[in-house]
Amino acid sequence: MNEDPRLLLLDDQDDIMVVIAPIRRGETMEVDGLRVQATADIGLGHKVARRPLAPGAQVHKYGVPIGSVTKPIAVGEHVHVHNLASNYTPTYTLDDAKPSTGGT
Amino acid sequence: MCAMADSSTSLRGWLRQDGRKGIRNTVAVAYLVECAHHVCREIAWPMREQGVHVIGFPGCFPNDYAQRMMEALATHPNVGAVLLVSLGCESFNKYRLEKVIRESGRPVKTITIQATGGTRSSIQEGRGWVAEQVEALAAEPTLPMGIQDLVVGTVCGGSDGTSGITGNPAAGRAFDKLVAAGATCIFEETGELIGCEHIMAKRAVTPELGLVLEASVAKAARYYATLGYGSFAAGNADGGLSTIEEKSMGAYAKSGRSPLSGLIKPGDLPPQGGLYLLDVVPDGEVRFGFPNINDNAEIAELIACGSHVVLFVTGRGSVVGSAISPVVKICANPETFRRMADDMDVDAGRILHGKASLDDVGQEIFDLILSVGRGEKTRSEDLGHQEFILGYKSFEPIGPGCLPSVTV
Fold first, then answer.
1. Is the pTM for the entire model greater than 0.90?
2. Least CB-CB distance to B162: which of A44, A79, A93?
3. Of B65, B87, B220, B226, which has the fewest beta carbons less than 10 angstroms from its beta carbon?
4. Cα–Cα distance for residue pair B109/B266, rounded to 1 Å
5. In this complex, do A47 and B161 lie within 8 Å of one another by their Cβ atoms?
6. Structural domain contains residue A73
7. What distances in angstroms separate CA B364 from CA B170, B174, B186, one per listed residue?
8. Interface residue B237 vs chain A (CB under 8 A)
9. According to the 3-state scheme, what is the secondary structure of chain B?
10. Do A67 and B240 lie within an 8 Å CB cutoff?
11. Do B249 and A64 touch (CB under 8 A)?
């Protein structure tokens, strides 16, 4: 059971939870009963891992796969384009062109 | 529900010769090549708040899709009269377009700039004719219109990680209510249904249609893979979406839970009430670039399929409206709503913090569509947004199995 009001679980099978109120680096989150510290600012609508994820694993959201893990992901870590890739077409971002904030 | 439907849900319509009814009575001023665009803008500008909208096609080379789109838009039920503006040497078949409009019972006039004597005289002549149409249309009677007469499209743009949780599923609830009441609903962008094709196919009214739906998404996946980009903008990633399949699952929620009655292509009119998927990705080899270069290209296609109103779900904060049909802006993200409330019709982001349920917001969207159908302006209409864009594409006609209600 998750108690952190900033995190929303969409489906029991999901590997991630959706951030519904911004989380600052260093703040403590409660992820499925586990207390973890945020390693980056994580914005509204972004995702954090519910369980450790290994490269190659499928990440589930809404109960369905939304892409493959590209780097090891720890519980509570921000799951995004730096560690998750589409199984269809690559994701285009402007992240290289601006200061990295982990989402605004 | 049915017993109390009549007075409370009655809309205000203008009856057209083909039996369809419009919820607006606009004059479309259409350029038939970019070279005539300025003249159209100048003609429409002084009357832009009296329902005079500019549409058009910029290309000088002929294109069957663009011809079909312009014919469908110029004879859309929200359009009461049409002024065509030609430079004179472009390849667009203005003769055929004028004939189609005249046969639809609408006043139509073509101004050819090279024949009229240039910019100034064309603007003057165009303004005179359009002013007469505005006056005549204002005097036209209206009649009651029911929900079953209504066609509603939906699109999402500037999506983020909230879109798939609040705005899109709330729009889906509104779609469910509309379909149950006999309306026609259209959702689109097969390139944003990648990964959803199998669950979507299960909702088709026939197994054959299910295969058609899957094939349309496979076509989109192939098309976008060839181009090297998915239907995914940098801002989607800023808003927390990581992959096209994640964005797709959120976008798919706009379709609601009704059975899928058919697949149509731009310019096709759904044959009866129900839920339809609009296949926006061209057929054949990749040609002419991206299927739709921005949200307004999709909105124009939904309108060409008869949409009286378009629901636009946004997370990052789109501001656009459209020529011809009102756009209802549904804001999925509460932070965006706080920043851009003046541009938004619906605050769906309050679902995130438990201040409303999906059903509450779905009902609010449904009620708002009815108000817009009685003449109330949407935020984008009030702000003067009348964006329009049309490019090159190529399509084959829809195949057997796409519209089971017609072929069975």
1. yes
2. A44
3. B226
4. 25
5. yes
6. yes
7. 9, 8, 19
8. yes
9. CCCCHHHHHCEEEEECCCCCEECCCEEEEEECCHHHHHHHHHHHHHHHHHCEEEEECCCCCCCHHHHHHHHHHHCCCCEEEEEEEECCCCCCCHHHHHHHHHHCCCCEEEEEHHHHCCHHHHHHHHHHHHHHHHHHHHCCCCEEECHHHCEEEEEECCCCCCCCCCHHHHHHHHHHHHHHCCCEEEEECHHHCCCCHHHHHCCECCHHHHHHHHHHHHHHHHHHHHHCCCCCCHHHHHCCCCCHHHHHHHHHHHHCCCCEEEEECCCCCCCCCEEEEECCCCCCCCCCCCCCCCHHHHHHHHHHCCCCEEEEEECCCCCCCCCCCCEEEEECCHHHHHHHHHHCCEEHHHHCCCCCCHHHHHHHHHHHHHHHHCCCCCHHHHCCCCCCCCCCCCCCCCCCCCCHHHHC
10. no
11. yes
Contact state of A91 with B244 under an 8 Å Cβ cutoff: yes
Please determine, for residue B290, whether its predicted confidence score (pLDDT) is greater than 60.
yes
Write down the mean pLDDT value for chain A: 90
Number of domains in chain A: 1
pLDDT per residue over B157-168, tens digit each? 999 999 999 999
Cα–Cα distance for residue pair B255/B211, rounded to 1 Å: 18
With respect to residue A39, please indicate whether it lies within any of the assigned structural domains: yes
User: Which of B199, B242, B244, B338 is the best substitution to test chain A (most A C-beta atoms within 10 A)?
Assistant: B242
CATH number of the structural domain spanning residue A19: 2.30.130.110
**Residue A103 falls inside a structural domain:** no
pLDDT at B353: 87
A104 in a domain, yes or no? no
Confidence of residue B9 (pLDDT cuts 50, 70, 90): low
